[in-house]
Amino acid sequence: MDQSMHKSDFVTVNGIRLHYLDWAGNGPVLLFIAGMGCSAYIFSRLAPRFTDKFRVLAFDRRGHGDSDYPESGYDPDTLVEDLRQFLDALQIDKVILAGHSLAYLELTRFAALYPERVLKLVYLDAAYNNSSPEAKAMWEKSPVPNMIPAWPKDDPDTVEEYITTIKRLYPALAVVWNKVMDEQTKHTVRINSEGKVVDKMSDAISKALSDTIGSYLPEYSKIRAPVLSFFAIRDGSDFLSWEYMTEEQRAQVTDFFKTVLQPHQKQDIEQFQQKVSHAKIVIIPEGNHYCFIEHQELVYTEMMAFLLER
């Protein structure tokens, strides 16, 4: 399907302006929500595939994409209130929510507060508990952050240079990079007063979101709607750089994923299954966190089958 066949529009709700994409379509509303730092355009290949059965949209939460960037309001309740008012503004009573990564916040909290408005939930490698002591301890053991070179002091002059820098510093993004990633990135950056390309998201907003992730205990046990949850089992190969990592460092990264992250993921999956016993779980071996890009056919097939179930 032609990725350009969508409407880009805005609504003003909860005191801010939110941007959204509307691919139209017929049937129940299916709303995609991107992960931290990403824009609605990241779903430009997957989302249109559902328009024969659903009305398909994607929106940018506050501090993301083409929406407003207020310095406050990044707690779960405000984010969910943004979502509720967004749906009301578009006169959407009931919705299917499909969210990647950070979007577990909106999916889980909205389902807990407004169960009557949720038809189904789809977690795209998102159903984790990042606030647990175990999760925090696990990420503190990761050697990856200390290996990534600092962002260049001289910011890029063009979006193309910005993208090249991202792909060099973050191999896990480079392996999934495509034209959709090019397009979605254009909506997450801005030109500053010096004519340089910089991230729209300020350090303050990034910290506020990180604080929320670290403190929000997902209310998975309150979910009553049907749930489909994808879990990408990461082996660390996507994170390896042959440009700035030594052989020893690459071995450390691989060992961390095998002996620390994967056992923690297994525990997370088991706990999620216990709390949401009715959920359908799809595990993707050697998966990428951006599963809806790297494993799009699998995600589309499983999602469509799940969404059509009565």
Question: Which features does this protein show?
Answer:
11 helices, 310 residues, Rossmann fold, 8-stranded mixed beta sheet, 10 strands, alpha/beta, 38% helix, two-stranded antiparallel ribbon
Care to give the gist of this entry?
This protein is an alpha/beta fold and 310 residues long.
Describe the structure.
By secondary structure, the protein is an alpha/beta fold. It has a single domain (7-308), classed as Rossmann fold (3-Layer(aba) Sandwich), CATH 3.40.50. It is built from eleven helices and ten strands. Helix 1 (76-89) crosses helix 2 (104-113). The radius of gyration is 19 Å and the shape is globular.
Task: Give the topology, please.
Elements: E1 7-13, E2 16-24, E3 29-33, E4 55-59, H1 76-89, E5 95-100, H2 104-113, E6 118-124, H3 133-140, H4 144-147, H5 159-169, H6 171-174, H7 179-186, E7 189-191, E8 197-199, H8 203-215, E9 227-232, H9 247-275, E10 280-284, H10 291-294, H11 296-308
Parallel strand pairs: 3-4, 3-5, 5-6, 6-9, 9-10
Antiparallel strand pairs: 1-2, 2-4, 7-8
How many helical stretches? Answer: 11
**Number of structurally distinct domains:** 1
CATH class reads Alpha Beta
What's the mean pLDDT score?
96
Q: Per CATH, which architecture?
A: 3-Layer(aba) Sandwich
Strands of the widest sheet, in order across it, are 1-2-4-3-5-6-9-10
Rg from Cα = 19 Å
Shape label:
globular
CATH topology: Rossmann fold
Helix content: 25-40%
Could you say which structural class the secondary elements and strand pairing correspond to? alpha/beta
Q: List the quaternary state of the chains.
A: single chain
- Order of SSEs, N→C? EEEEHEHEHHHHHEEHEHEHH
Largest sheet: 8 strands, mixed
What are the low-pLDDT stretches, counting only 5+ consecutive residues below 50?
Answer: none
Number of strands: 10
Let me know the CATH homologous superfamily. Answer: Alpha/Beta hydrolase fold, catalytic domain
What proportion of the residues form beta strands (DSSP E)? 15-25%
Q: What separation lies between the terminal Cα atoms?
A: 27 Å
